[in-house]
Structure prediction request, 391 residues.
Amino acid sequence: MYIDVFFVMSGLFLIKGLMEKKKNPWVSVVSRYFRFIGSFSIIIFYVMFVSMYTGDGPLWQRFAGREQQKSEKSWLWAVLMLNNIIDSQFITPIVAWHIPCDYQLAVMGTLLYVLWTKNIRMAKFVTVLVSILSLIVPVFVTYWHQLPAMLLPDNIEKLFDFPTNEMFLKLYIKSYSRGVPYLIGMAMGYILVMYKPVNNRRILSKEWSIILLSAGYILVFKVPASASSWCHSNDVISPLLFVAFSKMMLSIAVCLIVGAVEYGSIDIIRRIASLHIITVLSRLTFGVFLTHALFIQQNTYSMRALMYHSVMTELTYASGVAVLSFTAAAFLWLFVEAPLNNIVNLVTSSRNNKVEEEIGDQEDKLIKNGKEKIIEGVQKRTTTINAYTKY
Prediction:
């Protein structure tokens, strides 16, 4: 469930960027695509041509070979940001569904933003309609296909191959199942733009800041923790209620935390979030998300004996995956993402400058024509007055 936190923040940053930077929204959509596709293409290439030769073991050929075959069948849809819709049973690596899902929601959010700038009345209707559908459709799909409310493996085979899980294919990876967190994130982004935290800092007292922050963190941990009791209930309604409202409650909890930090009187959290090291690590989160699954697969598929589990071994394993993922993400950022972002920004900024120059020329022309008409009108009026006076 915690993946929804990323969708909330993605919607928040989308609307915040569109409203503050005043860029052409479709240029932002194109820029977003190229920000994703660079590192994503490297991962696809690695799975297709390299990963098969990086390990060994009794399970390696079976599982690693299968990932390679999946990649060969789905790489085109992955590049087109459609692999969570078309041939989704061939998604690899397992986390690759998140990228097209986020991009599709970004396109939806951009369309809503453009509509709000063109026709507010129609925008209100469409936004309400999209919100209602985002709430109802996951419930309907869950009920119609009799899916579980959570993504759980039915057997040990599906623990290694989630794309064979019906719930994963029909609900978990679809963009309509993530619409509620994204829309709530957009709403929070709108609030942050309209009521800038810089101008409204400490508007909440310390008591209210603590209350909102505590409520947010309690919900963030309580909603996923209560999933088991809701999802394994004997009645039909409880799992459907969980599907309908769990994402909403988690998203609201995240927004409460953001609001308490931005508008509250608790400075320590804001100072920690503003640290330079946090900013640097946040740049690498996309690469970490992409690469961590590869390191987990590498370790799992090359096992030759049963794993021994203890607190120390789990900490060591998790720390190792984190370090390797951040290291790989740093290389992706330095040699793929940053250069590609700079090229895209250079192209789009030059295009924006041309458009702005054309608009400026048109405005100057209109002003010049307006001035000429005013002068012409004044001259005619003066001539008429002089003729009348002479008469």
Remarks:
- Residues 3-194+275-366 form one domain.
- Residues 311-390 form the longest helix (80 residues).
- The chain has a mean pLDDT of 82.
